[in-house]
Amino acid sequence: MSLAGHLHDSAEEYPMLREAIRALAEEKIAPQAAAADENEEFPWEVYKALVAADFHAVHIPEQFGGAGADALATVIVIEEVARACASSSLIPAVNKLGTVPLLLSASQELNARYLPAVARGEAMFSYALSEPEAGSDAASMKTRAVRDGDDYVLNGTKMWITNAGVSEYYTVMAVTDPSAGARGISAFVVEKSDEGVSFGPKEKKLGIKGSPTRQVILQDVRVPAWRMIGAPGTGFKTALATLDHTRVTIAAQALGIAQGALDYAIGYVKERRQFGRPIADFQGLQFMIADMAMKLEAARQLTYTAASMSETAMRGTPVKELTFFSSAAKCAASDAAMEITTDAVQLLGGYGYTRDYPVERMMRDAKITQIYEGTNQIQRLVMARQLLK
Ligand code: CAA
Ligand code: FAD
């Protein structure tokens, strides 16, 4: 039984989990982070190491063969992986994003069919909502699913799909009733091996280069009707309800990236000497470091609060503040990560601007956390709607 599996009820076990995942990250993940970025390759060795330690999809419940980690434990795992390598942290994060739609809305049978392979590390699961013309306005998607006998036939292009090509399974949102707007969207499980599924070229990105981002192209893909997640017309609600849980994991990724940059910068300023003394002696830099740590801890508290709400909701008790808190956590943590990583580059001076040091990669990686799972403008829109309704 994995350590993560014990974490439901005992607060003392979170520090033990953090220690275990940090040790793994320092030994097996950090050493390859620069190469994953430079070569733009999916870190298969990291995947294997995460699977061996049962950290690749910790949130899958024990009844489906998973570690059964709660939302806070999942956050801690993602944080610690991201502290070493942001690209690698998308392994546990996207496995959660792809499977939460099933955990929230699918039948026991569908869950039992797909989740155990993810828990065993034999398959990864991606989430396909966005399209070339439907990003922030996700409900304006064009991908169609038309009923034909016992099947649905899917046609369309999903854009920006994280881990596309390396994942076996995809939660795909598609329009089943074009006259019903957001209530005419349904969610399906699509398999990589389904006839008619193909992938676009890898996007050439600013950061998280070790995580492939590709189009998922669906051409007359025949999916049995039992692979629909929940009832017809509930796909958009499921997609948004999922994001209420997984924006917390993007917040965790942002915290991890920021912590990595802060830790590196603190070590550096104590060693680097100018004007005859360590640059850490200069109050101008001390205040920068204090501000970086303060912003990080504030974002962390918000993220852990959101994680605790997410866990309560996953266990079946609705939490009406979850939508606000998950958006607030994602927004605050990603904005903090961008500021902290930018300041870390500044603290290293010219060296920080080169690839000989990890902070420029962290700064490039941090930027995506302000964009995906809804841009930070959209998070503010979500928060404002909650406050004003
Ligand atoms: N949970 C459940 N249902 C919800 C919900 C929630 N949090 N929020 C809204 N809904 C329901 C509404 O009640 C409504 O249903 P009814 O009509 O039955 O009442 C329906 O969903 C539509 O809601 P809205 O009218 O509010 O929808 P909208 O079209 O105005 O858009 C939006 C809402 C918040 C802008 C949404 O489109 C959004 O979040 N956009 C951003 C897209 C996004 O986050 N994409 C992430 C892609 S994944 C990714 O990026 C992956 C990665 O990081 C690795
Ligand atoms: P647009 O929606 O075109 O937005 C452009 C600008 O307009 C942004 O600044 C935005 O904030 C602003 N804007 C738009 N509407 C409003 C408004 N109402 N008010 C104020 N400002 C607004 N999607 C998936 O489904 N699955 C994935 O796995 C996935 N992974 C991704 C990985 C990467 C590396 C990237 C770059 C994206 C990924 N996405 C994924 C898509 C991501 O969620 C979208 O890029 C994001 O939601 C924004 O959509 P867009 O890029 O079309 O921008």
From TrEMBL:
Pfam families for this protein: Acyl-CoA_dh_1, Acyl-CoA_dh_M, Acyl-CoA_dh_N
Domain of life: Bacteria
Keywords of the record: FAD, Flavoprotein, Oxidoreductase
Domain Acyl-CoA oxidase/dehydrogenase middle positions: 127-221
Requisite cofactors: FAD
Residue span(s) of domain Acyl-CoA dehydrogenase/oxidase N-terminal: 12-122
Nuclease among keywords: no
Keyword match Metal-binding: no
GO molecular function, one term: flavin adenine dinucleotide binding
Residues in Acyl-CoA dehydrogenase/oxidase C-terminal domain copies: 233-388
Family according to the record: Belongs to the acyl-CoA dehydrogenase family.
Protein known as: Alkylation response protein AidB-like acyl-CoA dehydrogenase
Species: Nonomuraea jabiensis
